[in-house]
Design goal:
0% helix; three-stranded antiparallel sheet; 40 residues
Length: 40
């Protein structure tokens, strides 16, 4: 995943939270959850 703030690659946390993967940017420290895709 690419960081929306500084455009560098984010690091994935080991465990998932609420069936979502958690990502952290090593440069700016931004943390975000990867949203699940909606099933049609």
């Amino acid at each position: 995943m690419i960081c929306p703030r500084c455009k560098s690659s984010m690091i994935e946390f080991r465990r998932s939270y609420h069936k979502q993967r958690k990502w952290k940017c090593p440069q700016c420290g931004r943390v975000r959850m990867q949203q699940q895709k909606q099933k049609k």
